[in-house]
Specification:
homodimer, 437 residues, alpha/beta, FAD/NAD(P)-binding domain, 2 domains, four-stranded parallel sheet, 27 strands
């Protein structure tokens, strides 16, 4: 293919944005190269369920090559991007250089610790499969250690789990963690008492799920309270040494598990483009989703900064999907010498689940809570999930968990010396080194 | 429970032997402590399917605490055993010491490289989930690298996969690897040719599946040949530097993937008991399955050496299961002051699968091959698999693979710098550090 004269579209990232851009160019007279450092598309919205033993990594990851097997104009390339030269229209990767006529940067976002070294070193992010498996291993390990810990103070510290960040990820993780512990794990550890368990959700602002209507925010925090999650507002983490979480208020929480869902930023590679970036390091794009000085370079999804009704577009799948499709159309327009479309975000509403029968939904101007919102959440996520096998297996796992109050995948897969010593997380359990599935 | 006077049965290992001994003591007037360094029971017979992208680790691992949740007289303890003092009836673990009245050593077996350092460092074993995930990652990575490798010699080396050992593990792995590559992966990599792929099965003896009747051995090697596996007899590996497999014949095979299924030995902890060991370091036990000098210490499963019709009992699940049950009964006999039973192995026959519709079965004096044997293999393994959820998910994955010639879990989960440099396997992909599921 390399010698055909058709223009070369280079897509960086096989997330929702890159995936949909590539699919939308299926019939286009272009050569497409899709580059990702992973060989699979990850269904991020369900990552927290891998972290809480509900799903296997393989259930929410789908091989990129399988997705594009029948797309003749696309080549997948598993490589790490090292440098992007916009002027030369050139991309240097760990497996050689690539030139492009059109570039779609869909590199997504990564965790931001706001420069807090101690939190970055000892806390657990939740942006990829490795991190999700690290959380699962950590939580289960804490219970194994607590079951053998005679000192009640130490035991309570082992059973204290701190989730930081009241956005959807934090809310869903805290809710799922509460159900994992109170409905499942406690039956595994008869020698432990729920009275020794603490689950905290720390939010610096005064509400959860910013962006959702106030009643839904209230419902979310109320529901979490009923699940015995200590929802704390105005609580800013200042450090975590692996044994103690410290807050701005100088409150100290003895815990060995801090799940960091408080900050994300555009993928770091975006910082090296030398173009204008805005909040969360997102690259400022025109309404056409391209760069002012590089009209054939598009940035979409979490990595792109564009405002919608005065607000930056949320870092959510629907935005990335729609931007991917618009960008594909704009590349066709450009090829045909037609004017490009401006991106208009069609807000499909938003959903967040807190646990069994409990979710919040903002759709078609409606505000829904409880079972109905939860059922919608299930349906939408099953629908979005790539691959029939994955859908089926996820459905079975969900049904199983729902009817039997069980979580099948509660496995500790980190090999390390026992007993596990706090702070020493890096030994054996090195973050992002528990290489999932 | 610790202060009740009932005798303490300590079981080391949650494999088939330990699991069945513990279950059989469900109603017994004893306290049971089950110690394992993992928190799950692993269904070893399907490990090779995790290694070949067919199943998720979570599909063949079941949480030990879930298995024994309703067994009131059992406590599970996740710890690493450090020292066993038979005279003092004492076990030192990473989380403290335990004393026992009865000890059941069901520690299983581990890979033996016959002291070949280079093979141990660069080869891949297949005894636990980490190793299975390492093999999966390695095979898929080889294809990703080959897809980007211009040099045909290097590409052929990347696509050469050497399986060592003609026992069931080697045969099943080679067959599954061939089907993964020829039926699935090749569709993922249109730029690669099957002509560049080599799969070798190296066996030092002159037949596969030693222990099976000769016609079944012939069928196995013929079937593998038809799957384009180069079955080589009288081939002894002498070294593997990560780029070249060297044989006793001085033949050199350029390859970066060596799967070692040629040797197992009793778990190393057995060497520190100071008791008599036989072939493969297995501990010699009496017909009562206990130690001559320590009648209340039993050794069962792969770790035990006992002959049956002049042959050492095979390292297979049925042996471990039956020995676990007999040992449970013998502990009850001993409690009641009754004479102990001698262990009589009831050979249920044996099964090995080579691929779709192809297996060999020796049971009820019958020799079966082909579809019927394969169907039996499926049934027996589904039946043995612990947990309904696991059975269901495995069945779905199998049906999916069978009807759609697909392997859903072909994910590379090892984070490492690209390009991957041979021999450097230890970087990022450190063996047993790709911590599965």
């Amino acid at each position: 293919m390399a010698d055909t004269p058709s223009p070369h579209v280079l897509i960086l990232g096989a997330g929702f944005g890159g995936l949909n851009a590539a699919r939308a160019l299926r019939e286009a007279p272009v050569r497409i190269t899709l580059v990702d450092r992973k060989n699979y598309h990850l269904f991020q919205p369900l990552l927290y369920q891998v972290a809480t033993s509900g799903l296997s990594p393989g259930d929410i990851a789908f091989p990129a090559r399988a997705i594009f097997r029948n797309q003749k104009n696309l080549t997948f390339r598993m490589s790490e991007v090292q440098h992007i030269d916009l002027a030369q229209k050139r991309l240097d990767t760990s497996t050689g250089a690539l030139t492009f006529d059109y570039l779609i940067l869909a590199a997504g976002s990564e965790t931001s610790y706001f420069g807090m070294q101690s939190v970055q070193e000892n806390g657990l992010g939740l942006k990829d499969l490795d991190e999700a498996v690290s959380i699962r291993n950590r939580v289960l390990r804490m219970f194994e250690l607590a079951a053998q810990e005679p000192d009640p103070e130490k035991r309570r510290a082992l059973l204290t789990f701190v989730v930081v960040g009241g956005g959807p990820t934090g809310v869903e993780s805290a809710g799922a963690l509460s159900e994992l512990i109170r409905l499942v794990l406690i039956k595994d550890y008869p020698q432990l008492s729920l009275k020794d368990v603490r689950i905290l959700l720390l939010e610096a602002a005064d509400r959860l799920l910013g962006g959702f209507p106030a009643p839904l925010q209230e419902y979310a925090s109320e529901t979490l309270w009923r699940k015995h999650v200590e929802v704390r507002f105005g609580a800013s983490v200042t450090g975590f040494d692996g044994e103690r979480v410290t807050l701005k208020s100088e409150e100290v929480i003895p815990s060995q598990t801090l799940i960091w869902a408080a900050g994300v930023r555009a993928a770091r590679i975006m910082d090296r483009l030398g173009v204008r970036q805005s909040r969360q390091n997102r690259v400022v794009v025109t309404e056409l989703l391209n760069l002012p000085d590089h009209p054939t370079v598009f940035v979409i999804g979490d990595a792109a900064y564009l405002e919608h009704e005065g607000q930056p577009l949320p870092m959510m799948a629907p935005v990335a999907i729609q931007q991917g499709q618009t960008t594909a159309r704009n590349i066709l327009h450009h090829l045909r010498g037609e004017p490009l479309e401006t991106f208009v975000y069609k807000d499909p509403g938003s959903l967040a689940t807190i646990g069994r029968n409990a979710a919040v939904a903002r759709l078609w101007g409606l505000k829904l809570t409880g079972f109905l919102a939860w059922a919608m959440w299930l349906g939408v996520h099953l629908l979005w999930l790539v691959g029939f096998r994955n859908k089926l297996v996820v459905l079975i796992n969900w049904a199983w968990d729902y009817f039997f109050y069980d979580r099948g995948i509660r496995l500790i897969t980190a090999q390390q010396k026992w007993p596990w010593t706090p702070g020493k997380a890096s030994e054996g359990e090195t973050k992002g080194r528990e290489l999932g599935l």
